[in-house]
Amino acid sequence: MTMKNNKHQQGTIALPYLKFFNAQLYFINFFGHILVFGLGLLIGITLTFCLKNVSFNFQFQQFQDPPFSFNPSSHFSHSPPISSNLSNPSNDHNQTNISINEKSLVITSNGLEEFLKIPMAMHDMNEEELFWRASMIPMIHKPPFKQIPKVAFMFLTKGHVLLAPLWEKFFKGNEGLYSIYIHPNPSFNETVYDQSSVFHGRRIPSKEVKWGENSMIEAERRLLANALLDFSNQRFVLLSESCIPLFNFSTIYTYLMNSEKTFVEAYDLEGAVGRGRYNYKMSPLIKLSQWRKGSQWFQIDRSLALHIVSDKLYFSMFKNYCDPPCYSDEHYMPTMVSIKFWKRNSNRTLTWVDWSKGGPHPSKFFRQHLTIDFLERLRFGSTCEYNGKTINVCHLFARKFTPHALDRLLRFAPKLMQFN
């Protein structure tokens, strides 16, 4: 009994202490929650203020600082030129202008007029971008604007155009009917042309070209791709620095524009310098019976030019299997055109060259060779077919003329070729 009383008394004494402890624990938990809530609220207010401040500073910086612009070097510009206040360097060929001002974000379309601006010859596109851009074909053939067709004169040179003064007279007064593109050695100093020259600023991004190597047809395709950027170019003429025109601009322009066929020389030649250059690894894509040879100096229309710059199949075959003594510039285009586009090709070139002396290079002509009789033979000394008729104007250009012949050419041209 006494033990039970003692236990009862101990329980009675411990109960107030337990209640007091629970009360303390409750207040501790209560103030703990308040403390955590207060800290969270303080952190939230602080973060909100910081984020607002960062956002405000970013917006303020956008409107106060000059807008970011991707401006290539003054020697380079896109084709066609694109003007923007804000552009992404990895996507700088878009057709949209984006400008930012203090009030709003304005997106302005450049429209067709901007798209059709005459491209600059020099640009910063790499070759993959260039050939993709050049290979575009409008599926609607009739343009929604007045288009004056132009002839693209493409000069494949080591340095400057040797007979530039003669060509200056040839082009004079015919602005808007031609385009000029020059592919020189990359080390060439273009300052030889003053700003009044038709050749000034007409250099394209070029690479080194070595005689007899595949770099020759790469350069030809590069010239075509650049010329195709101008939608007005409808005829394409490949020339060297030693070429001369045999007629005035009007005659050549009319001859090219009215022709129903292209002018890529192509013929089957037996022997070491013809079929002997064929590589049987090209079969079955190119058979020996399809192998052709011809002059590299061509005159073609826009349709064929588009097919040439878009070609990967035949081009890769020649790059892989046509190395000296196989010269791709004498076989690539003649062979491909004969296989795929023979119906529209005349199988002749409009550029006269003298191979009568034999050897790897044609004859050169100096001052003493230049007579009126000689030039007249080049102009009217042969017969050929043109649009189903036999005519005696078979060559519009000739080579290889040296700078020593320039003086006489400048004296004969105004009267004989009726320049200007």
Automatic annotation (TrEMBL):
Presence of the UniProt keyword Ligase in the record: no
Domain of life assignment: Eukaryota
Pfam families: Branch
One cellular component term from this protein's GO annotations in UniProt: membrane
Keyword terms, alphabetized: Glycoprotein, Glycosyltransferase, Membrane, Transferase, Transmembrane, Transmembrane helix
Region described as Disordered: 72-94
Composition bias, Low complexity: 72-91
UniProt entry tagged with the keyword Glycoprotein: yes
Topology with respect to the bilayer: Single-pass type II membrane protein
GO molecular function, a single term: glycosyltransferase activity
Subcellular location, record wording: Membrane
InterPro entries associated with the record: BC10-like, Glyco_trans_14
Transmembrane regions: 25-49
Descriptive protein name: Core-2/I-branching enzyme
Organism: Medicago truncatula
